[in-house]
Specification:
single chain, mainly alpha, two-stranded antiparallel sheet, 13 helices, 6 strands
């Protein structure tokens, strides 16, 4: 009699365990009810701060709008063995997400990503304006001058212009613009170092910094990608021969806010540190953010005898080895009118 009671009790325990396991399996794979911002059906936004405990993550999920018991989530995190793998970040939890999928997302760090594009040829001012408008990017540098920014980036005394690589950068919602700028700066460091290591043996450039400056000029002067190497060749030839670079984008950069879209003769004659009509050699800093192709062109220019070029009006340029040929090209393509960008004379 006693044995029969024990067997029945054991069977009951087994059935109870199976029922519990079934209920747990059902709960893990059943879609969670989400309530985001007072509107059902929208993705729920969940922010996990660095250092949040698994229990705190469960509580944060419920507070954000996951309609379940925080203790159940916490026990699932612990029993899964992935509780210590949960990563900080900003997450979007779509409708239909199950507890199992929620933990997978948090453990893999599938945080919500935004992206901002920094365009080749932009100035630092244009780049910072774009970052200021970037979606959900924390503005930690907005009040900093360029000098203060570089100091906080560990480059005190280095001009900010040209020091950030133009590219598309993905970032998590709520990330700091300082972190993104640091990534862009290190990306330029790598690109510049790689380009400088591939420089021609007879380059007149004395340092990687000079290569960066020349690359920025090439970037601003290039209308057609196929001309980039030859444009770099023109400036390289001028540097070798001691000729003035006489490139309008440097003059425009030196004018700053005074430039109204029209470059006049008096502007070319007004001296600034960036006026390559009044000062020999390269300007003191880059004038824009050069891309990879411009960096390589600066250190590996086309083998050309050209000393002059002029815009043909279709984005491409005409190159000349002599001043007479250049003057004829100017008469042909410009009809006495300077282009807005400008070319060496």
């Amino acid at each position: 009699m006693l044995g029969r009671v024990v067997r029945r009790f054991l069977i009951f325990l087994v059935l109870l365990a199976l029922a519990a396991a079934g209920a747990a399996y059902w709960w893990l794979h059943a879609p969670l009810t989400l309530h985001a911002g007072g509107t059902d059906g929208l993705p729920l936004e969940l922010e996990i701060e660095p250092g949040t405990t698994p229990r705190g993550v469960a509580a944060a999920a419920v507070k954000a709008g996951v309609q379940t018991d925080a203790r159940l989530l916490y026990y699932w995190f612990r029993l899964s063995g992935q509780d210590r793998q949960i990563k900080a970040g900003n997450y979007e939890i779509p409708t239909g997400t199950t507890p199992y999928q929620l933990l997978e997302k948090l453990a893999r760090g599938e945080s919500t990503l935004r992206a901002v594009t920094v365009v080749e040829g932009w100035t630092v001012k244009q780049m910072r304006a774009a970052l200021a408008k970037a979606d959900s990017l924390k503005q930690d540098t907005a009040a900093l001058s360029n000098e203060e920014l570089m100091r906080q980036l560990g480059r005190e005394g280095v001009a900010a212009e040209g020091r950030f690589f133009p590219d598309t950068y993905a970032y998590a919602k709520g990330s700091s613009d300082m972190d993104l700028l640091k990534r862009a700066m290190h990306a330029m460091d790598r690109r510049l170092e790689a380009a400088w290591s591939q420089r021609e043996a007879d380059t007149p450039l004395k340092s990687a910094d000079q290569a960066l400056i020349l690359a920025s000029i090439v970037e601003k002067e290039t209308g057609s990608a196929s001309d980039r190497g030859e444009i770099a060749g023109v400036f390289t030839n001028r540097l070798r021969s001691g000729m003035l670079l006489q490139t309008d984008p440097t003059v425009i950069y030196g004018m700053g806010e005074k430039f109204d879209g029209n470059l006049r003769k008096r502007d070319l004659q007004t001296d600034t540190p960036w006026n390559t009509y009044t000062r020999a050699g390269l300007p003191p800093t880059p004038i824009a953010l050069p891309g990879k192709a411009a960096l390589l062109a600066a250190v590996q220019p086309a083998n050309t005898k050209a000393l002059y070029f002029v815009s043909k009006g279709d984005g491409s340029s005409h190159f000349s080895a002599t001043l007479d040929e250049h003057n004829r090209a100017v008469n042909r393509y410009q009809r006495g009118q300077r282009s807005a960008k400008g070319e060496p004379e």
